[in-house]
Amino acid sequence: MTAFATDLIPGSRPETRLSRSLPGWALPVTTLAVAYLAVPLLATNYLFEAILLPFLALSLAGVGLNILTGYAGQVSLGSAAFMAVGAYAAYNFNLRVEGLPLIGSIVLAGLSAAAIGLAFGLPSLRLKGFYLAVSTLAAQFFVQWALTKFSWFSNDSASGVIDAPPLHVAGLTVEGPVGRYLFALTVVTVLTFLSYRLVISQTGRNFIAVRDNETAARIIGVPVLKTKLLAFAVSSFIIGVAGVLWAFAYLRTVEPAGFNLDRSFQILFIVIIGGLATIRGAFFGAALIVAFPLVLSRFGSFLLGDVFDSGVLDMSQRIVLGALIILFLVLEPDGLAALADRLRRRIGTALRRR
C-alpha cells in the first residue's frame, strides 16, 4: 500500500524498477522532510507569504473538493462559501468561547462548514450534473449575503472584515511567516493523510461506485443517499479548515468578498488541472494556480514593460488559464497527476535499459 502522497488511480499501475526499489512511504517522507526541515531554513519571507501559504490553503481546499467531485462525482460551485464558513466560524468560536484552544476552534469551524455542506448537499439526492452545480451556487450567494447582512459574524464590523487572532498552539504563540507556514503545513499534512485513508477505505469505494453508476451501486448494496451526503460533509469540513488557514495563516485579515465565486472557480480549476480522483493532483493544481500569475507577471513585464499593468495581467491570466484548462480537458483529462505518472514510467524505462 502506498503512502498518502501517491494515489490509487484506476488503470494506473506502473511497474518500474524505480517503484519496486523504493518503499511506498519513501516519497511522502522525503517530501515532508524537505518541507519541515529544508524549506524553513532556505526560503525567504516573500516565498512564505506569496507562494507557500496560499499554496497550502488552496491545496487543502482542492483535496476537499476532489473528494466530492473526483471521487463521489458530485459537482459543486460553492467551495468558497464553505471556506468562508470555516474562516468566520473559527473567528467567532475563538472570540466568544473563552478558553477554547485554537485546534478546538478549527475543528468546530470544520464541523460548521460540514453542517452547511450537508444542508446544501440535500439537492444532490434528486439532482445530478449541471443542475446540481447550479443548485450549489445557492450556498455561494447565501453565505456571502449572510456574512455581509449580519454584522454579528464579524463582531459588528460594518465592512464585514475580520482580523485573525494570535495563533496559540499547545501554549506556544505561532508568529511570523515561518511559524504560520509550519502550522499550516501540519494541518494540511494531517488532513491529507486522513483523506487518503478515507478514499482507500470502503467508504472511498462507495464514493467511486456512486460516481460511476448510481443504479449499479444501489443494486450491490451501497447506501447511495447516505454516501452522497457523507461526501458533501467530509468535503465541506476539509474546505472549511482550508478557509481557516486562508484567513488565519495566510491573509490574517479577510472579508466576505474574498470568498466570492471566482474563488470557487479557482478551486475547481485546481481539481481539473491537477487531476480528478487523485489526492496529489490537488497539490499539483494548486502549485500551478499559485505560481502561474507570478510567472506570467514577470514574463509579461519582461516582454512589454510598463504596458503590462495589473489590468492586462488579470485579463492575460484569465485567457491563458482558460486555454490551459481546455487543453487539459482535451489532451489530458486526468491532469498533471497523469503527466507525473507518465514521467515516472519513462524514468523507470530509462533505468531498466541501463
Verbal overview:
With 354 residues, this protein is mainly alpha-helical. It is 73% helix and 3% strand. The protein has 14 helices and 4 strands. It has helices spanning 17-21, 26-42, 45-71, 79-96, 102-121, 129-149, 176-199, 202-212, 214-219, 224-251, 261-274, 279-304, 310-331, 335-353, and strands at residues 162-163, 167-169, 172-174, 253-254. Strands 1-4 form a two-stranded antiparallel ribbon. Strands 2-3 form a two-stranded antiparallel sheet. The radius of gyration is 21 Å and the shape is globular. Residues 1-20 have low confidence and may be disordered.
Essential attributes:
354 residues; mainly alpha; two-stranded antiparallel ribbon; two-stranded antiparallel sheet; globular; disordered N terminus
Protein topology:
Layout: H1 17-21, H2 26-42, H3 45-71, H4 79-96, H5 102-121, H6 129-149, E1 162-163, E2 167-169, E3 172-174, H7 176-199, H8 202-212, H9 214-219, H10 224-251, E4 253-254, H11 261-274, H12 279-304, H13 310-331, H14 335-353
Antiparallel strand pairs: 1-4, 2-3
Helix pairs in contact: 2-7, 3-7, 3-8, 3-10, 3-11, 3-12, 4-5, 4-6, 4-10, 5-6, 5-10, 7-10, 8-10, 11-12, 12-13
